[in-house]
Write a structure and sequence with these properties.
The protein folds into 2 domains: 1-43, no CATH class; 59-165, Jelly Rolls (Sandwich). Helix content is 10%, strand content 43%. It has helices at residues 16-25, 50-53, 59-62; strands at residues 10-13, 36-39, 71-76, 78-83, 87-97, 103-111, 116-125, 130-140, 145-150, 155-165. The strands form 3 sheets. The chain has a 4-stranded antiparallel β-sheet, with no helix packed on it. The protein has a 4-stranded antiparallel β-sheet with strand order 4-9-6-7, with no helix packed on it. The radius of gyration is 26 Å and the shape is elongated. It starts with 9 loop residues before the first strand and ends in a 15-residue tail after the last strand.
Length: 180
């Protein structure tokens, strides 16, 4: 048990990761150069952030598909542009390939004005079929787009997509959600 008249003890904290975090979170003291110190004095800390008060929606709930904020799509034997606005987008879909003696291909592409990159692809051939669920998040810059493509009428892609954050990372809650 500590005594009321015991001297305060200071301890030097050597932690490069904590020092880097302080420099990042408190840029006004980034050039301070002093060492982090701790003391045996108890100082209460009250978290007044929006996360502590419960006024922000947890990330897994914020990414939910909702009637007013998701767009359904179908792609069969062609290509469909899903999203072309900057920001973060969640895509949830089912890809089905019917049996064929040839090749059946489905893919999702990220496109910029001059090229395309395949970010997800499935292929079935020689009489095999498949059904796969996909659920992923993409980031689009200004000028980028997300497309889905199906190589034949046997490659069927059904799904939904919705924006979950804008280009600055500000979360977009499901349409119709409000805190009570």
């Amino acid at each position: 048990m500590s005594q009321p008249n015991e001297p305060v003890q200071n301890y030097e904290v050597v932690s490069p990761s904590l020092e880097a975090q302080v420099k990042t979170l408190l840029p006004s003291v980034a050039g301070y150069g002093g060492l982090l110190r701790s003391t045996n004095t108890i100082i209460p800390v009250v978290d007044v952030s929006s996360a502590a008060e419960g006024s922000t929606l947890p990330q897994n709930l914020q990414e939910a598909l909702a009637f007013g904020s998701c767009t359904a799509f179908d792609c069969v034997n062609g290509s469909v542009t899903l999203a072309n606005s900057p920001g973060f987008w969640r895509i949830f879909a089912n890809v089905t390939h019917g049996q064929s003696s040839g090749s059946v291909i489905s893919r999702f592409n990220l496109n910029d004005p001059s090229s395309a990159k395949v970010i997800w692809e499935s292929e079935a051939s020689n009489g095999t079929g498949l059904s796969v669920n996909v659920d992923f998040i993409v980031f689009l810059r200004a000028g980028d787009s997300l497309t889905v493509a199906s190589s034949t009428t046997l490659a069927i892609i059904h799904g939904n997509y919705r924006q979950i954050a804008d280009v600055t990372g500000k979360l977009v809650d499901p349409v119709g959600f409000t805190f009570s």
